Amino acid sequence: MQNIIMPMHEFFMGMNQLELINRAPGFFKYQPHNVAAHSWKVTQIAQFLADVESQNGAKINWQSVYEKALNHDYTERFIGDIKTPVKYATSTLRSMLADVEDSMTENFIKTEIPRQFQSAYTRRLGEGKDGSIEGQILSIADKVDLMYEAYGELEKFNPEPVFVNIFQSSLEALSEFKHMASVKYIATDILPDIFAEDFINKDLLYDLAKSLLPDFAAAENN
Which residue ranges make up each domain of the chain? Predict the structure, then answer.
């Protein structure tokens, strides 16, 4: 019997695979997270951050916000969630992994996505963290969810040092967008609530947040 590939079948099956890919593999976690759940959380966060930017005068392409956020990690079904220290060990390795991912994504679109939808999925499965306001919102939302994943472990006093490192790197990434209204909101309205709780290395991370995010420092000094 001839094997007929049903339109979009492999794409829909891939969503099930994303549920099986754990984030931060190789480390003890009280609460494991998978890539599918991460994508949903990032979309929720991006939606709110876009609201903040919109209320502060930015013109938002809402279709782009949702497409970028929902699809930003879909291609991990091809290579999995590689440990961040490994992924960023060298610029050469990072570039090689990106090339492999791009090649596999391009082949997937050509062979598994119906022709009339290929241009749409080329856009959706491409790199979403670009210089557009929507791309910047995605970058921020991704780091906010990463920070909360780490925070969830730190407040349970998970001794794995990687979660302190993840929280720290998230703050550093957010500081790159400190001029944006959404990050200012995070600094003044969200981080104070986080640091009101008790967790491992709280003082270290608190001081780092104050040094990286002037709006957080100002809010704490008032």
Answer: 9-221
| pTM listed for this prediction | 0.87
* Contact status, residue 76 vs residue 104, Cβ threshold 8 Å: no
Q: Enter the tokens of residue 165.
A: 């490192």
**Class in CATH terms, 9-221:** mainly alpha
Give the integer Cα–Cα distance in Å for 114 and 111. 8
Whole-number Å distance between alpha carbons of 138 and 193: 22
Can you read off the two tokens belonging to residue 16? Answer: 């099930």
What are the tens digits of pLDDT across the range 146-156?
A: 999 999 999 99
Structure tokens at 147: 């920070």
> What's phi and psi for 184, nearest 5 deg?
-60, -40
- How far is 91 from 73, CA to CA, in rounded Å? 20
